[in-house]
Amino acid sequence: MPLTISSHPLSDHDFQTADALLASAFGGSTNRIFDLQLYSQVQPDGWVLAWQDEKLAGMVGAVNYGLFAHVGYMAVHPEAQRQGIGLALMQSLLEGLERQKVPLVTLDASAAGQPLYEKLGFVAYDETLTFHRQGKFQPCAQHPRARAISPRDLDELIEFDRGFFGAERGKVLRAYWEALPGRAFLLRNERDQISGYLFAQKSRIGPWVARLPQEAEVLFRAALSLPYDDSVSVVAPAKNRDAIHMLKRYEFEQGRANRHMARGLGSLPGQREQVYAQTSLSMG
Hints:
The protein is α+β, with helices and mostly antiparallel strands. The chain has 2 domains: 3-102, Aminopeptidase, CATH 3.40.630.30; 131-277, Aminopeptidase, CATH 3.40.630.90. Helix content is 31%, strand content 31%. The protein has helices spanning 12-26, 33-42, 85-99, 114-119, 154-165, 170-179, 213-223, 241-249; strands at 3-6, 47-52, 55-64, 69-76, 104-109, 123-134, 147-148, 184-188, 194-200, 204-210, 231-237, 253-264, 275-277. Strands 1, 2, 3, 4, 5, 6, 7, 8, 9, 10, 11, 12 and 13 form a 13-stranded mixed β-sheet that branches. Helix 2 packs across helix 6 (170-179).
């Protein structure tokens, strides 16, 4: 069956098709259209798609942060697996990033996907753990120090985040701030400097960064004061032991474990030990 690999933005129709592909590849009933739309807003040229008999057979995306790119949404339809489609998608994506002179590429690999990434030169450096809390829970009282992020905070917030994330990701933080009104918080210290922030998505908490564990918990309690869908997830670097202990204390249960991998020049950017939650597995 003929296979076509192409790189182009997703259309409104493609979001539905891509969501169905991800559901078939990963299982579950999670609706990922909100995530796909934001991903496309942040990096419209970041998609590589595989078409087989005019049907979407596979996909992968990458967000280019300049100093590195993060790969996500790597999926092949179950009926099209074991045909080399995943390898072809990744090779096309990596070639595109090399043309953009991106020095380092990171991703969070499942156990099933890790051998493919190792074949392509990725090396595992850490684990990324996904925690869940099911059902409705009693909202926490919001601490007065945690306040909503305002437009005038954004430039300072983006600069604060740079050292922890390892690159400037203003396009991500601005997109999530616009998409999540009233669901983004920050803390300031006694010198009126930002010391932490958190974004609360509809069913996921992150990104979430703080200098100190006690500041991270103030932000976490602010997030838990909000309503959510039936479950809430947090994608946390295993290197941040304070995050792991806090999530367990608040009765979040650990689910899947992914390998945080990188390919390219230089050491891993940022300070993962102070990142309490990634934006997602797909966006880093």
